[in-house]
Amino acid sequence: MDLPFGNAVVFLLYLLPGFLAMQLYRARRPGKRISQFEVIVWSIFHSFIVHLGLAGAAWALGRDDLDLLSRAAESTIQPRTIIILLGGGLVWGGVLTASDWIRTNVPFLPSPDPQAIWPIVAGDAPKKDLWALVRTRQGVLYVGWIKQWSFDPAAEDHDFLLLPAYLVDEKLKVQRHLQKGGVYLNTRDIESFEMLPGT
User: Fold this and answer.
1) What is the pTM of this model?
2) Are the C-beta atoms of residues 92 and 160 closer than 8 Å to each other?
3) Which domain holds residue 29?
4) I want to staple 178 with a disulfide (CB 3.0 to 4.6 A). Which of 114, 128, 144, 165 is the partner?
5) Whether residue 122 sits in one domain with residue 53
């Protein structure tokens, strides 16, 4: 069964895989907020790549039904076409996410965003067995393990959770053990932040 669509809706459907792929990638690696115009431009770019991939798959497999670019002028779209577009967007989003993971986790490759200090500090601390020594603006000292952390490049402040966490004095003597609940902090309340090796 074919569904009749206007040209504007057809255009939006053909942008769907690029938009979906971009949203999957941005969910994995948050970036600075972008304008609606930039969203459209990036959706067009990624959709073009997805459609090229589908055209290549159509040629390699000898299946014309996968070559959606050649049928873009049609005024009707089959539900199967929508499923193919969604699948193409999911696959390309997975490729973008996987490439980002590889660049982040393979040691000799450059970091995707070398200017972002907070995710490097918060993300590497558990991998390198580093404890965070946090001094708040009120003078309270905590030592703990960075269990969870948030990162939004557009935001000035970031949340993080120390768990387990210890309230300590100036000589790092434990005053209170906060193992169950941990300590929820925001970087705006931090005076200094040190990374300490050890157990």
Assistant:
1) 0.51
2) no
3) 3-105
4) 165
5) no
